[in-house]
# Entry
Amino acid sequence: MFKKVSGTKDILPEEVIYWQEIEEISRKVFSLYNYKEIRPPAIEDAALFNRSLGEFTEIVQKQMFLIKNQEELYAMRPEGTASIVRAYIENSLDKTAAFQKLYYMGPMFRLERPQKGRLRQFHHIGCEVIGSGDPGIDVEIISLADKLLSLYGISGYEIKINSLGCLNDKKNLVKILNEELKNKLGQLCQECNERYKHNVLRILDCKNDSCQQALKNLGIHDKYLCSECAGHFNQVKSGLDALKVKYEVSPHLVRGLDYYTRTVFEIKHSGLGAQDAIGAGGRYDNLVKELGGPDAGAIGFAFGVERILLAAGNRPQAAGKKIIYIIPLGNQAKEEGLKLLNQLRDAGMPADTDYEGKSLKGAMRSANSQNAQFSVIIGENELKNNTIMLKDMETGDQIELPKNKLIEEIKKRC
Ligand code: HAM
# Structure
């Protein structure tokens, strides 16, 4: 027997109901905020991610699903932002309107060690706004994430925000860290010693106690921010305050992807254990230009859908759609049954029938397990009289009706 690949998941019909609910809420809300859906491919030129996320990021170094095809190296996309920026540039979306609000949903792939909340194929629901550096958009993006979470029915999450500043500020921060940590390397974990060489910013959000201790007294806060970036960050915070979005400034939040500048944020849920980030995002004001496009400020975020569902906890079993179940008894009745089935479906009523040749009792059992609201029995007598027997599955009441009155009668009862 074949088994699914480690770190992947079969999303079975009873769970799909919740996925559809989350997707439906998201589509509605994105549309209210005037975002348009975009669907880039799941495979891209691997170099796109090296260039966007950064050569020394964990994703590029260790987690890419690579496909070698003759001379080409493709990657199963580990995230959506780089693809969307690529699509924005390649399709000259800026020529239609330089300012674009886009959203997306779909699978992402990272070769990680699977554990609760950490998969190798997982799903993002996310959005990207390209073409503006206005702090008002940062406020919209963070408050939109907050709105979505509350509509998904999730509570107990925390929004952590920080500003990395512009490219110059980031360089300053790197310089400060290099300088301040130079004499503390012995206190840092092995991984942070590696990070010190290539990706010193990531040391800031290492969870290791002794690394945190080493960082504690550095007093970095926002002393690396230039006055413009500090002003931008202040406007973001006061916009969030005005909208009463709860957040916490977290000076050690740096995020694991190189493209970020200025505002970054992460949303954590206390009930999820080690993999507690249910979503994250931030500004990437240099990426569009870096990938060959115009000079366009941009910001976005993505939720991990599997973690959103974990955070939503056990929900009451959502009842499937009520159906009308046709039970034909005998071959001639089967043909009548098929015709009725078509009529019901054409009238917009979900309907199904027994294809397993079951007895009346067996077919009734199927009707019950399919959550049928009514069953429609066509036996010898009914065929003779051109009628059907309509049974209300909840009350058990049944009446005989002329066949052509079935739809009218069901409409009356619903
Ligand atoms: P990210 O933080 O790498 O950001 O991923 C966003 C979310 O995806 C995480 O907060 C988490 O919920 C979920 N996630 C990540 N890896 C896994 C995994 N292995 N298994 C399950 N869930 C996972 C990004 O990808 C950025 N593109 C977000 C963004 C959009 N920034 C700007 N625009």
Notes: The domain at 324-413 is CATH 3.40.50.800 (Rossmann fold). The pocket of histidyl-adenosine monophosphate is lined by residues 79-81, 110, 112, 117-119, 122, 124, 126, 128, 277-282, 300-302, 304, 306-307 (CB under 6 Å). The chain is about 40% helix and 25% strand.
